[in-house]
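Example 3.2
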Amino acid sequence: MADTNRTEMPHVLDVVALLADRPADALARGQVGTVVESLDDQTVLVEFSDDEGRAYAITPCLRNSLLILHYEPEAA
């Protein structure tokens, strides 16, 4: 379940991690993907790819089921 205190929602090109397993898509909690399209206010399309850049899953995800990853320091 997503943290209800988070207000930041993922947008196109954000790097995100799954907050829960998605067995139907063969994806596990913590797998990292990139948001490639906004489908509606609650849903985005996320591409999961390997180290060679080959996509192994492209699936719709609820925005609140994703954690945006940050690669630079930000104020908490």
